[in-house]
Specification:
Number of strands: 12
Largest sheet: 6 strands, mixed
Number of domains: 1
Strand order of the largest sheet: 1-4-2-3-7-12
CATH class: Alpha Beta
Oligomer: single chain
CATH topology: putative 2-phosphosulfolactate phosphatase
Order of helices and strands: EHEHEHEEEHHHHHEHEEEEE
Strand content: 15-25%
């Protein structure tokens, strides 16, 4: 008697199993100081960060302005996170603000440093001036004792320290500077060579707080009104003036396109 055999199942040609979704921790999540580039990079490192530092040295090149980048980064940051716009010259002020935030919390503050880069017609472009300035911020944090840095942050820091004497030349010789010069916007380059030594505070748009990563409604609870001070509902100048119903801007997606909706933001000197 011959035993019957079951024919093996045939797999349809080119048929592949769909990969199962993986729930991964945020990039560089175990480090206190993280660094990435662009708005998409901010989405990778901003989760869980108490301070997000956006380094955008030259405004006016690429498709996104500094204000656009700040809005987009704030939208992917946790509700209540302090979002700063900084340059190499304001790196010491950034470190001071992070120390202030740690004192407020009574615990360490996680910092995400974002080198803004540029978004051009053919996609994202790294900007050497932003990477070097971001490294200067990491160096200032380390000098303040905040030095548990990711490898990405450590590499940018080493570059900034070793090239400190050449940063002015590298700024003017960069692709971003060449773009500004070619389009008659040299004034932005001149302004960048004499930057303010104080970081500006960017108010997180209300729409970002209401739909933050923790899923809660934070109607202004995380809006920052100044160093060490937090406004209540709305902001410090009046209920609803920071991104309330009167805000008429459009939210910015990671690819640079805009999603219609109301939001508001403003930067103020620290």
């Amino acid at each position: 008697m011959t035993a019957s055999r079951t024919a093996p199942q045939q797999t349809a040609p080119h048929q592949q199993q769909e990969p199962q979704p993986q729930h991964r921790k945020p990039h560089q999540s175990k480090y206190q100081v993280r660094l990435d580039q662009g708005v998409a990079g901010a989405a990778r490192v901003a989760s869980g960060a108490h301070v997000v530092v956006v380094v955008d040295v030259l405004d006016g090149h690429g498709l996104l302005s500094t204000a656009d980048v700040l809005d987009a980064v704030a939208a992917v940051s946790d509700a209540g996170a302090l979002v700063l716009h900084a340059t190499a010259a304001s790196s010491a002020d950034v470190a001071r603000r992070v120390l202030d935030r740690q004192a407020e919390r009574g615990d360490r503050a996680v910092v995400a440093v974002v080198a803004a880069g540029a978004l051009d017609d053919d996609g994202f472009r790294s900007a050497v001036e932003d990477v070097l300035a971001a490294g200067a911020v990491v160096d200032a944090l380390a000098a303040s004792g905040i030095d548990f840095s990711s490898p990405e942050a450590a590499v940018a820091c080493a570059a900034a320290v070793s090239l400190r004497g050449a940063q002015s030349h590298l700024l003017t010789a960069s692709s971003s500077a060449a773009e500004l010069a070619a389009t008659g916007r040299e004034e932005a380059l001149v302004a960048a060579r004499t930057p303010a030594a104080v970081a500006t505070v960017h108010r997180v748009p209300l729409v970002a707080e209401a739909t933050g990563r923790d899923g809660g409604a934070h109607a202004g609870a995380g809006t920052h009104a100044g160093a060490g001070t937090h406004a209540g509902a709305g902001d410090d100048t009046g209920a609803g003036t920071d991104g309330g119903a009167s805000g008429g801007g459009d939210a910015l997606r990671l690819d640079g396109s805009r999603a219609h909706g109301s939001h508001g933001e403003q930067s103020e000197p620290a």
